[in-house]
Amino acid sequence: MTDRDLLQWPCARLLDQHPYARDFFSACGNPAMDRQQTLGDFLAGLTPDRLDALGMDRTTVVEQFLAFIHQMQRLQADRDTAIRSVTVVGGHDKDGRPEDLQVTLSAGEMIAVVGPTGAGKSLLLADIESLAQGDTPSGRRILINDRPPDEAQRLSGEHRLVAQLSQNMNFVMDLSAHEFLSLHAESRLVDNVAGVVDQILQTAVALAGEPFDAKTPVTALSGGQSRALMIADVACLSASPIVLIDEIENAGVDRRQALGLLVKKEKIVLMATHDPLLALSGSRRLVIRNGGIDAVLDTSDEERILLQQLDTMDARLTTLRNRIRQGKRLSLTH
């Protein structure tokens, strides 16, 4: 389709195939539109007063409209881009000793990042978030699908491949949870905004264990509710195929359920953690010491048996925690 072809389309066909074009018409003041009128005729029919209000001449309006359509098409194409793998090519630790390794993570895989506080776990997550190319203190390089990322993937906010859930999360916008999620869903060009927003809200409430509704201002959410909302948002809506999580055990959410949601979406999940249950939930764990990756440990069969025992213990702790939260007494049978 050429730009000339597009301008000859009836407005009805344009809105059917590119519904986001309504946003452009709204920005034009939403003048009366004949759906059988061609797009070119519609744009040609903008009055001088309307053009003055827009601050553009007629030629510029046409150029801006075509640029808008092309940009939205690129965003949709990016949403469908498949990321099969992420590879960390070793750099060096804090003393300059080389990391002699190369670690490849596949879609649908969860990897734990473990090590003492200050060892460099957050630095590794930051290297992946920035898609480092030897230009960070660690000297690491990150490959996407076995190739270095292009500049658009690294630097453009529109092409972000990585979503990060940090330990601290604060909202500054004066919006309800529903308004916040709707805004995000519309920016992602999803087809069913209302349905996706409802799904995220229900998921977030289930994760948080503390009820809140669509009208709750995001600034009034507790720490656990905030992180539950963002985890649900990343799992259900975010197009970023790589998710970095920093110590989800401090989030006050059902962490096992949260991980299950993220991995189920075929995302690549890296999680810095001190929690043995979470560390053993991954297929591997990267051991960080002195700023470098010291070892890569596959989860052993014995550790998987231990994980089942930890799951049982965690389920009991969750029951006791919920009873305390509800103001109930505890007993040996719980």
UniProtKB/TrEMBL annotation:
The record ties this protein, via InterPro entries, to: AAA+_ATPase, ABC_transporter-like_ATP-bd, ABC_transporter-like_CS, P-loop_NTPase
Q: Taking every annotated instance into account, which residue ranges of this chain make up the domain ABC transporter?
A: 83-316
The terms under GO molecular function for this entry are:
ATP binding; ATP hydrolysis activity
The signal peptide stretch is none
Which key words tag this protein in UniProt? ATP-binding, Nucleotide-binding, Transport
Q: One Pfam family from the UniProt entry?
A: ABC_tran
Q: Give the protein family.
A: Belongs to the ABC transporter superfamily.
By what name is this protein known? ABC transporter ATP-binding protein
Species source reads Desulfosarcina ovata subsp. ovata
